[in-house]
Each structure stands twice: as C-alpha cells, then as structure tokens.
Task: structure prediction
Amino acid sequence: MTKTVIQFILLFLALMVLQLVCNKIVLFNVAMPIVFIYLILRLPVNLHGGWVLTIAFFTGLVIDIFNNTPGMNALACTILGAVRRPVFNLFVSRETDMSVPIPSVDSMGIGDYMKYMGTLVTLYCALIFLIQAFTLHNFVLTLARIAASSVLSIIIIFGLDSLVSTRREKRL
Result:
C-alpha cells in the first residue's frame, strides 16, 4: 500500500512539472496539451469516492495556483473525479475482470482504455474551455480548442501510460 502511495506522489510531482512546461506550448493558438489529469484517470478504481474528489480538487488547485486561474481547474477536476467511476463502469462490465485495480492499457485493454480516457479527457477539455470562455460568443473557436486539445492530450496521455505502465514481460 505505501509503495503505491509513494508512486502516486511521485507521479503527481512529475505531472505537475510536466504541465508547467506544457502550459508554455499552444499549437496554432488552439491546442494546449493537458497532461496532469492523467493522475485522476490513473487512480485505483476501488479508491473511496471521497478520496478521489479530494485528490482531484487538490490537483486542480495546484494547477490553479501556478496558472493564476481562480478555481477553474479545481472545479473541472472535481467534476472529473465525480464522473470517473460511472464512466469507468460504462466501459468495463465488472471490476473483477481487472487483475490490477488501476485503469491502464494493461489492465483494461487498449479499446476500453481509449474509450475511458478519451471520454474523460474530452469532458475535462470541454469543462475547462467552457468555464474559461464563459460565453457562447466565439463558440466555434471554443469547439476547436476543445477538439484540438482533446486529441493532443489523448495522444500524450497514451504515451505517458506506456511509460508508466507496470507491465512485467517475461524475457526468453
């Protein structure tokens, strides 16, 4: 248990630093990579809902502090933490089918994991960009930001998952 907690703390710190670097990257003034939500996606399925919401809120709050965005990320991350379990249940029929309770390509399979991750990343991008815009004046630009940032973030998070994966391969 403590090994898992230490791994999540190290993952939290690494993702926060990576997000601070990614905040300087905006492709074509539309797409911004959002990688820190990988921590929320990777939380164990059997973790109590109160802990998930607390971790999600704290993660969003840390990003808000560094980005000087008053509570926008905290709100979006808290909503993401609240809907994470129902979205997971949409794509995985039983939790007992998973050998490891941590959502990843290894534990869920590539198809189910891509649906799970894609849904949550798109939801987060929609929440954060709609909160930032807070108007429907430039709705096409907001939709473009949601779509482009979602695709870019999904690609990066999928790459992160392959790096962080705990796969143990047998060597011949």
